[in-house]
Amino acid sequence: MAPPTTSVTSSGTAAGAAGVPEPARQHTKAGATAFAEYYIEVVNRTATDPKVGLLEPLALETCKTCDNHEGTVRELSAKGQKFSGREANITKSDIVGHSEVATFVKIHANEPEVSIVDSNGTIVKRYPEIVDDVMVFNLRPESCHFVRNRGFGLCLCWSAAWAGVG
After folding, report:
1. 75 vs 99, residue with greater confidence
2. Which of 26, 41, 44, 156 keeps 20 to 30 A from 4, CA to CA?
3. Residue-by-residue DSSP string for 22-38
4. For the chain, what is the radius of gyration of the CA atoms?
């Protein structure tokens, strides 16, 4: 699946944080999928061009997984480092559950072999390829949970962006 091609708005006039594409602001199945895909794209963008402050509006403070992503961006930025490429390439998105109170979006992604490089392009750390990683977003009108599953444990992410309180 190619990265989403939706345009990004610059104001928070619709539900959600500023910068979230209009389709990702809708409290529909399609909106839930668009939000999950958008979050992955922002993770990719901030890995290859570390800018602090882009991920934070998409998650509440209680999200440990989001805190990890945000911390990585802060560290990369402070050290003048970046990822050599995308962290995740979405291959498939599915709605795996939907009701009046929640929509579950399952994202399949391949994580290519990637490195952290310094400002001279010297490899600082390498990460191996992961094929068919699975992430499940539990999106609710009042909150958003992000559940990452690599076969062990769960991490939760609450997002104010999709809930319209950002």
Report:
1. 75
2. 156
3. GGGGSSSHHHHHHHHHH
4. 15
Q: Given its phi and psi angles, is residue 80 left (phi above 0), alpha (psi -120 to 50 degrees) or beta?
A: left
Which tens digit of pLDDT belongs to each residue from 41-59? Answer: 999 999 999 999 888 777 6
103, 93 Cβ separation under 8 angstroms? no
First to last CA, the chain: 28
Cα–Cα distance between 49 and 57 in angstroms, integer?
A: 17
Specify whether the CB–CB gap between 137 and 147 falls below 8 A: yes
Strand partners, 127: 114
d(CA 91, CA 30): 16
Q: Say how far apart CA 136 and CA 156 lie, in whole Å.
A: 10
Residue labelled with tokens 């809708």: 26
For 18, the token pair is 């500023």
Q: Write out pLDDT tens, residues 14-30.
A: 345 677 888 887 778 88
* pTM of this structure: 0.76
Q: Which residues contact 122 (CB under 8 A, 6 or more apart)?
A: none
> Rounded to 5 degrees, what angle do the CA atoms 148, 102, 104 make?
35
